[in-house]
Amino acid sequence: MYGKAFAPEYQGALSSLSVNSSLTQVLAAGEERMRAAERDGSPAEVARAGLAVAEAHRRLGNVAEADRAWKAGYRAARTAGDRAAMAWALWSGGTLARQRGALRLAHRLLGLAAALGEASGDPTVRGYALAGLAETGRVQGDYAAVTALHEQLLAEARERGEARHTVWALEGIAQMHRNTGSYDTALAMFEEAAEIARQGDDMRGHAWALRGIADVVSVRDGDTGRALRLLTEAESLCRRMALSSALAYNHKMRGNVLYRAGRYEEARAVYTRALEEFRAMGEQRGESLARLGLAKTRARLGRDPRETAAELAELEHRLSRIGLHHVHRMVREAYAELDIAP
């Protein structure tokens, strides 16, 4: 039995905020609380408020502001001698690094966060940091290295009855199954995640799960209508919370669904929109995926094969540098799909 989802990154005076609070609301409340804590000379409360500010900026796609906020929160936590708060700040910084494509930095910061979380006796931040490490490995495509950690964290979340973390782990494992062709298993896990998120009133988790279901029913069943309806439902949840990153990934997935259905003109428009959104927030993985979808779509619409080959080659080089192995494999597969020589 799972309880209602909660947001442990909203701490101190901000702990009354809901997991579904709009990010603009979180940002306003966090900045107000941080200014008050600075006036009161309370570095511990500055750190707690700074965490909420950093996470709100990150999820809104305000990369530079998020970077300043997590670092300021870490300094305040260190001044207060609060190792758990230091760990939370490092978790936020590591998550931002992954979003920006700085995967080595993400591994380093999240590893430090996990160690500090364990040393401080805060199992929640330790769990979130380990989850961050698992997710970083997953987005790189290193499934063999992180599958066991995903499953361990899923078991721990189930045992605690923690809805939000259970949903995260289910979605991560489901994504790996989907990417390796185990569509039935992936769909069952995405559907379980959606139901737990719905019962726990976790709109963010529900939106991601709906996106996963849409992907599977599109690629496995060719059910374009259902996939698009699911994505429309998920988009409404993203907009209610101002989830910029999740919304951009939703649009990218809509492009995928339209591309698979042969609706290339529509797909081109949606991929272009997603690409602009990813670039605005410095999301390199999303930008690469949107560029790949757009390149394939343009090829289907009659683009010169030499231009497509040149773009795919540039994407290959970029992805090799970033370390996104799974996306790199997708680019290699695109040559064969489009019958273009590397």
From TrEMBL:
Keyword DNA-binding among record annotations: no
UniProt entry keywords in alphabetical sequence: Repeat, TPR repeat
Family annotation (InterPro entries): TPR-like_helical_dom_sf, TPR_2, TPR_rpt
SUPFAM superfamilies membership: TPR-like (SSF48452)
Keyword Secreted assigned: no
UniProt protein name: Tetratricopeptide repeat protein
Organism: Streptantibioticus cattleyicolor (strain ATCC 35852 / DSM 46488 / JCM 4925 / NBRC 14057 / NRRL 8057) (Streptomyces cattleya)
Lineage of producing organism: Bacteria, Bacillati, Actinomycetota, Actinomycetes, Kitasatosporales
